[in-house]
């Protein structure tokens, strides 16, 4: 056996005992939704999170299960380290991304919305805020604020001292607090905003939607250079209203709109001819829309046919 950096040992030959062969698989499957959630919150991409899970699985199958005292803690360490490496490479890719980058939307099960902290952690608005953190800050923030790991566990995961991790956590919390909504997100306000958007798409009447735009509203559209989308953030009620009037006016009456739970929050899925054209989510404060997010990149719309379970 060889020793790994985290103190576990790598098995150099398979266990012959038939009763133990499937135990590692069962353990991994039992924690899979949790591990996917960690990776997704780190990356904002389901496709990359799945790749990280595959890498975690390979490493998990290569260790001696007998020396792993806490499988959950061990697997979280591995998936976080793999996600950190992937996140650093993703940041380089995003530098050449065409237009604004938005997280990949997930069709989530109803129980995600019931877990307030989890739903906030995977919301489009929060994932965008976390994009402004450094990779290590993001890992510490996710593990501490969403999953409640203690500082010693996080320190072992990110190869820092507990004192340093406390400092990173404090810095990350302040950073996020300065950029997150000032008040708790109201699902009723989100639904009202999305209802106005839906009416505008279905009828062409934009009055109700435009009346809900905050003066400093920001519209982000992610086409990834594959489909038409605004290449820069559109800021201000006047500019966003003009964009919506031009865009929604062309598709009014031709687009089917479906209400859905995306990333634990109300959202709209838009289809033309049965094909998904985009996902719309909003950020509201004081009954006004402060953020309007439209994911159109086809590569990010392939996981909307079934609900995804997220866990803490």
Ordered list of secondary-structure elements with their pairings:
Blueprint: E1 2-3, E2 9-10, H1 23-43, H2 46-60, H3 71-94, H4 110-114, H5 116-122, H6 124-130, H7 135-146, H8 151-158, H9 162-177, H10 187-203, H11 207-210, E3 213-222, E4 234-235, H12 237-251, E5 256-262, E6 265-272, E7 275-285, E8 288-295
Parallel strand pairs: 3-8
Antiparallel strand pairs: 1-2, 3-4, 5-6, 6-7, 7-8
Question: If you had to describe this structure to a student in words, what would you say it looks like?
Answer:
Strand 7 and strand 8 (288-295) form a beta hairpin. The protein has 312 residues and is of the alpha+beta class. It has helices at 23-43, 46-60, 71-94, 110-114, 116-122, 124-130, 135-146, 151-158, 162-177, 187-203, 207-210, 237-251; strands spanning 2-3, 9-10, 213-222, 234-235, 256-262, 265-272, 275-285, 288-295. Helix 1 (23-43) packs antiparallel against helix 2 (46-60) and helix 1 packs parallel to helix 3.
